[in-house]
Amino acid sequence: MTKTHHPHRSHYGGRGYFQRVGPGLVTGAADDDPSGIGTYSQVGAAFGFRFLWTAVAALPMAIAVQEATARLGLFSGKGLAVLIKQEFPKWVLYLALTLVVGANSFNIGADLGSMAAATRLLIPIPQTILVIGFASAMAFLEIAIPYRQYSKVLRWLCVSILSYVLVLFIVNVSWHDVLRNLLIPSFSFKRAEIAAVIAVFGTTISPYLFFWQTSEEVEEGPVRPGDSPQHVKTHLRSMRGDVTAGMFSGVFVMFAIMVTSAATLHANGIVNIGTAEEAARALEPLAGSSAKVLFAIGILGTGLLAVPVLAGASSYAISEALGWREGLSLKMSQAKGFYFVILGSMLLGLAMNFIGLNPVRALYLSAVLNGLAAPPLIVMILLLSRRKHVLGEHTSGKISQFGVGMAALISAALPIAFIFAR
Hints:
Blueprint: H1 23-31, H2 34-47, H3 53-76, H4 80-87, H5 90-120, H6 127-144, H7 147-158, H8 163-167, H9 175-183, H10 191-204, H11 207-220, H12 229-264, H13 276-280, H14 284-287, H15 291-322, H16 336-352, H17 359-385, H18 388-391, H19 398-420
């Protein structure tokens, strides 16, 4: 009997959404982390509705990439770093680890800084104290409390970001313009615009999610050779539903934040977001003077959910590559190296807050860094998902391969276009 940490994941009908949190749903929630909120708000403020088409473009590619990574964990029983180590030269493994750990550490730092900045909107506590406090608290919680329980509680805090959806029914939105920009791409080869698209794709199709998704599928319990065809079919269907639901929810929130920021900030001449207070103004039509409270709750909820995922993804990658025992289902005494990497990731992110970066601008920079790190990792996922000696008869289908291939092609082409842009 295959073990499962998500016994209800195959049942998506009826009540109890928050009781059915699988890896894909957690991944979708973590995708709308403070970096995502900051990036989508900045793009909406700077360019209005012009880049709404990126939501339509990103959704199928995000689903395809996450489905491929989940498939690797589900049918190989191995994490992504283990598979890269097994299937590629050592330098490829080292490149992958450098990309994901570097991007994750910067992202953790940006998220910690933004969480502190959002808190300061409500309570005048020094930024340094807040950053250290958040890092320490999350490191302790990730070690002391099973992440499954932790994430179910935090998803209720993340409900606050649905306030961006509610704003759409209050402010004056030209839905004709929204639909036109959603379906008809508008793009010019200017560096600022290319950087914006790199940031959007980087925070939607993020490297840390690849490692997290694969490793969490392994922890949940992979399909085993002796499982019945019906059991395998149920696992596969459940995984696809989980991933699709998670990424759809993440991209839907992306769409709502971009539209809200365009209809409020951009429409009122705010095209550059430099502070948490400026970002919070997007929620003023809904909450008035309470906009800061809603914004702060959203940043804190998504940060508390996403930072452990970022640190965990780095730890999974390094532990798998070095052959250490790993897993959030284990106690620290059972996987010391795994948890020491989590602590190290938190410390690196913490250190980033002492080099003078603006916490809100850092969110956008972290999204761009993720966009630059993603292409080689997506190519590796595409190659692995096609190999029968890795997945047996459960290699990715043509539609999935096409989606992952397009993600690899577009994410690789954008940085090249940026270099040659004017």
